[in-house]
Amino acid sequence: MSTPVTREAFSNVSNDLPLSIQKMAEDLLCITGGWPKVIARELCIPDGDGVVPLPDHPCLFAFIDRYAEVRWRKSGVPKTEFFAGLPHYCQKFEWASPHPHFPALPRVYYGATPPKASNTGKLDELVARFSPATDMDRRLIKAMILTFYWGGPKGKRPVFTITTDGADDKKGRGAGKSTLAEILAGLVGGVIGFQARASPDRIRSGLLSPAAWPRRVVLLDNLKTFRFSSDEFESLVTCEEVTGHQLYRGFATRPNYLTYVVTVNGASFSKDVAERTVPIHLAQSTKSPTWYAETRALIDQHWDEIVADVRWHLEKKKGVIVTAFDRWPDWCREVLGKTDKPNAALKLIEERRRAIDADDLDEEEILDYIRACIVAAGVAKESLNRVVRVPAVMMAKWVTELRRDLHQNQASHFLRSMAEKPGVLRYHRTKTARYYEWRGKDAKPDTPPAEITFKVTRGAH
Q1: Residue 135: phi, psi to the nearest 5?
Q2: CB 182 within 8 Å of CB 189
Q3: Most CB atoms within 10 A, among 40, 161, 219, 252?
């Protein structure tokens, strides 16, 4: 006959006297080795190398039962009150991750000890499994992996846009864009996916879901929108904290240590999105039937060596001084600077940003159309090199004639944004009029303008 195992008791009373919440919390943390912990304002327990939240007091006491026999009496503090008061006495963290950052972030709980920094060569071996269009793209893929592990400031990571030059017969289809994003994101827990048409509330709810906690990569896959523009997306990329509604819990937050990745054929972005992105081009290639399994095996079998190599790059490798200016200076210095030829990479990034900036392309087309409209309105062509004054409502109407996807207010905002930048357009507003000045190459401060008047046909519909 086996001898019954005596388990340690956990109770809300001692010698028939009720214990305080603080004393019970101290006893519990001693029994469990410091658990639960408060992470992102949630009471959490360990789950492998990660954590899971405790939503209610039955879950808490089920956890306690792993370590001790629960003996709860009605004369002591109720379970619900203990659950409510326990977080005040637990160790608190801003976030938790089963995967390391380099350098480690001070208010993040890491569930595993990372390997020591070592130049193993496995990071380059992993990158070599893919088909970048150029050697520079190979370096940018490497920089993307480093970014996943970078312990940099919140909201200071660029968007990586995986695309092709579209020169092949397949127009970029089947180049492995999604596969690259998903396999490499698997290094840090996998992707949190969303669609461009998803509502902001749904996107934020997904990012804040406990199932998404261990994942560091947000994937907008197979984007098909022409001139992709989204205030919500731009905000998510650069905000310090992602805030929103967590299902069944209410208001929730997570620090923005996320990296955003977009896959697209024929990228076409608004200027604000284009300036946030690092475009990576892939080449069409014929992969063997065993390519995927072999690539996964490389990661699974050499995980520690890959992470050790990442750590060596971020913590030990001497960086190259980045001389070019970019909107992501911290990332350029601490991540891109740890790759080969970072200044040449920045030059290529800037060229590609201009190529996918649909606003710049739109502006050129719209200026050509405005020029033609000015001439059609009876202004001599030579006046285009001087100054022409056009009513704001008329110029907005011209834009909507060319861009039928814009309504009058959108056209007005577009023109105002153009007029704020150096160029031929200037916006003016007086007590009696709003108008644009077209200032040609020969315009001087005292050049008298040629004026176009806006005529309304009465009774027209």
Answers
A1: -60, -35
A2: no
A3: 161
